[in-house]
């Protein structure tokens, strides 16, 4: 990664530098010291680049990814699953490309300021509405579109560019397409002009100005530390929350029922960092044992594994005379999202198919109270409802 490829204040890293003024300078210092490599790529980054390149190629040539199944792209075969997932993103972009009096741009560099710039996957606009669509190929971390720093920076950058060209944008719609997340692959957020500009002023521009003025304050937290290279090595404060948890909660073996509510909230707010701290300790212990060291009471054992065929085709031939095909092979229909990807959400048949679609309520889970989603009824409310229903 050269300096020409990414801005110092890159939108893709904004979750970190907007929240932590010292992160960027520390990362670059550690890079110079040889402790981290900012040019290093991971297999997940390579997979993401590969998927983005396919998507961009399909949009430029106006061909659906489904036409590329089985073909090689940059050394890798495009599977049916790859194509189906990419097609979700393709169709959303294609709908905007086909709108009358609409202009669109694919993989375009945009500047929020001279210091903050990056490449937007896709955006389109007509006389009043801007839509920014971002493809996320990862499946380990679910990306939300509401208050997504990267998307807001791209939107601001495009609006700024369009205003200079005399385009009066009044409506801004942000999309995140994360097709490998099965339950909610497409997310949409309509953000007001005022909200976007206030966030840019209060947070993005403020962070840039502070850091250019020499502010190197490290502020650890789940969002900013998650993908920060310095958090894994060299940043002493990134493990501060986890260490505090171990000392105050684990070491003293406190019963959660006698904890002050403030400490309960503190633990919940920093759950990810606490778990990350535990994971780092486990990795360290495994490393010690694998190198021949000792940790009293612990050893390395093989985990659970599943049996597998050594030569499936040979076994298949042996079994065919003895087991009917209906029992030898398993057959499963594609998911609802898969049907929508192949047919398209606006296909005439979808209106009839949707009559046979239901979405059961998910299992109750602890969540941030941010005003979104439906709250689960408490046990007392359930009993109250039963009493009221009996009285009718």
Describe it.
The protein has a five-stranded mixed β-sheet with strand order 3-4-5-6-7. It has a two-stranded antiparallel ribbon with strand order 1-2. It has 392 residues and is an alpha+beta fold. β1 and β2 (76-77) form a beta hairpin. The mean pLDDT is 86. Helix content is 45%, strand content 11%. It contains 16 helices and seven strands. Among the domains are: 11-212, Lambda Exonuclease, Chain A (Alpha-Beta Complex), CATH 3.90.320; 235-290.
Observed structural traits:
five-stranded mixed beta sheet, 392 residues, 16 helices, alpha+beta, globular, single chain, Lambda Exonuclease, Chain A
Assigned CATH architecture of the domain at 11-212: Alpha-Beta Complex
Number of helices: 16
As for the CATH topology of the domain at 11-212, it is Lambda Exonuclease, Chain A
Give the overall pLDDT as a whole number. 86
CATH class of the domain at 11-212: Alpha Beta
> What is the rounded Rg?
25 Å
Helix content: 40-55%
Q: Characterize the main sheet.
A: 5 strands, mixed
Please state roughly what percent of the residues sit in beta strands, choosing from under 5%, 5-15%, 15-25%, 25-35%, 35-45% or over 45%: 5-15%
The computed structural class is alpha+beta
Tell me the series of helices and strands, N- to C-terminal: HHHEEHEEEHEEHHHHHHHHHHH
Q: Could you say which overall geometry the principal axes of the C-alpha atoms support?
A: globular
Strand order of the largest sheet: 3-4-5-6-7
In the predicted model, the low-confidence regions spanning at least 5 consecutive residues are: none
